[in-house]
């Protein structure tokens, strides 16, 4: 217990040094550490100026690159920001899938006029109902239809045993019910979840600079955390849109629109939509020229006419070809850019558009709100269509003011708590108490270092966890000191008392800390958000406090014993 | 060095008080269960669902102004209170609570929309900026139900794991005593929450789990000593062995509880309102946990008894050989 060979001393010193270096960046500003700030998403002149100043300051920093510069990751409750829990609508995933299948069926049943099977499709209660109609000879070609459907019924990707995607049931003489198999439902749900996570990320963080990583929870939920965002409404707005984009030709003949409005019925193949900006009613063709899948890139730009914000996008090769062909044939007519059944823009085709460059403009105010709106719309278009509707089921927002106040209150409480504990230890145990206080400070440094190094998140309950650790870290020291005191009183020499004291306290210290660790582990596994942060600091604190109390304090004590050589311990 | 003047070995007869302590604990548990089933816990939105929005108090406004703005939106259970904020220069804040109308078809989404509606209405009525909103939260009934189940599961799982660990490191008699003490602590702490109607939320569950860990810590220290004294004094009656162990660990128990309480009091008074409920639970839990490891865990061990011949030191699994 009292032997400290030089390799042990070296190990202790290295551990403390690494912990200290990891904790060090927390004491300095980002600029001092050479960390460049994020580029502001809304580039108003003031925001841009501030960004450039901070960036230049960071570039002038002399902080050496080999030293760690990562700080403790602050949780949303300390940083401020929006937390959203959302759920994918399962029925929507199934319905969308069946809609795609319905279109496939239409094509498979009509490869050429001679081989056509007449049918009507209807999606109802999570299944597709196909009703066959007699052909020219009055025959219902049920077997042929079943065979063609069987060809469409591919195995579920990645499923064991080659499970098929659809269950196909013949009902009566003329009707077939198609539903998704369980294997297919869970595969599509998995696919929808990962696809949605990617789309959510690209809508909220189109440039990938804000380090936003939506997390899956269970099989149909997504957790999104957006640090620094003060208004949950904007996030919800951006994510609640399906993002279904189409370019379609427009019929703006006043009489036909008038008729559609008054009868409430549009001509076949057309639908009546409203322009979001002007409120104009337009008849839009049901067959789109290009869709969101044909968009290569979308970005926020400016309208060359009046310099107001706009959204520019470029079509990919296939989209470009179709679009230039249609614009060639329809000069002086209008086309509509439709997003989720709202007409975003309905410009005239003055001349054929060959390059595939299109702009939505005119709808955005010339201020930072309009700018943000254009940025959001570009992100929605570029990220693409959500596979299913997202429902928000939990929202937590912490404003920047509250976050700052919490940090201040937490830091103050920690310092006062530490001071109170340090003073009582010194008063009660004298010199040994002082050793404990030094190792307690080392403990705090190690906790901070571990949090920074592991990239763990510090939350407000996490700060409470650190303070609690301060109180409880003393426990291991106290257990040892009490034993030393007992041994000393029973007449043992200082050296033996310390030796026996540590030996006897050891198993108690381990038992006691393992039970607390069990509680922390359970909290981590079953908790969420701030509670998880509490569990992390508690668990880290258990390790560091056992190390500091059992190793660091012991080392100090032994060094002092060797140096002062007291006959007995005055405790 | 204060310690020099304190006696190393007290000779208090703790086990003499085990009957009065048992009656006291039983009464406290009955009272807690009664309180929990009558007035119940004051669940926060984590577990009850609903919304809370906190805004900085606009100049020249009164609670009634806010109530009339939010009250006209067709929401249920609208409550507005004025409170003091946190920070170096605490400003008064309004805490606004409400629920989506019960009749809503999709109550989860309705609760979210209600938050957006209230935010917009307040922004317009008092000309607020984003910075005036200190916090907002909306939890639907489904999520709150799940959070509650997860919280209770966490408590249960932690208790069972502790039971297993103690049974493994000691003997089953010890684990019965330890888990009885933990359950005692959790029930009484929840009873106190029901009594003072302090908000019971996710962080309170975290606090309860920490109390379990802390109380367990205390109990293990005492039990370790019981085991040790039992080996040393093979013929001494169990009651006296337990008294010896409790006296041997008394100054440690009081000191650790004392320093932990000091740290917790610092959080309670300086950590701001967000941490107040949590630190209250922890302060109370440390006190009750210290009491229970002396009187509940040890008394039960005393009552059940331990077989003293069966195991030698080497049979006990663990760290002795290290």
Approximately how much helix is present in the residues of chain A? 40-55%
The proportion of residues in beta strands of chain B is: 5-15%
The average pLDDT score of chain A comes to 84
Number of strands of chain A: 19
The chain pair with the largest interface is: A-B, 88 and 90 residues
Oligomerization status of the protein chains: heterodimer
Gap between N and C termini of chain B: 32 Å
- Rg over CA atoms of chain A: 34 Å
Uncertain runs of chain B are 318-322
Largest sheet properties of chain A: 6 strands, antiparallel
What Rg of chain B do the Cα atoms give?
Answer: 25 Å
Q: Structural class given helices, strands, pairing of chain A? A: alpha+beta
- Low-confidence blocks of residues of chain A: none
Distance between the termini of chain A: 20 Å
Number of helices of chain B: 9
Number of helices in the DSSP assignment of chain A: 16
Outline of chain B: elongated
Describe the structure.
- The complex is a heterodimer of chains A (571) and B (322).
- Chain A is an alpha+beta fold and 571 residues long.
- In chain A, 51% of the residues lie in helices and 18% in strands.
- In chain A, helix 1 (6-23) crosses helix 13, helix 7 packs antiparallel against helix 11 and helix 12 runs antiparallel to helix 13.
- In chain A, 42% of the residues are buried.
- Chain B has 322 residues and is of the alpha+beta class.
- Chain B is built from nine helices and six strands.
- Chain B has helices spanning 18-38, 45-48, 63-71, 107-126, 141-169, 172-196, 202-232, 238-270, 276-304; strands at 42-43, 50-56, 76-84, 92-99, 133-139, 199-200.
- In chain B, helix 6 packs antiparallel against helix 9 (276-304).
- The radius of gyration of chain B is 25 Å and the shape is elongated.
- Residues 318-322 of chain B have low confidence and may be disordered.
- Chains A and B meet through helix 8, strand 18, helix 12, helix 14 and helix 15 of A and helix 4, strand 5, helix 5, helix 7 and helix 8 of B.
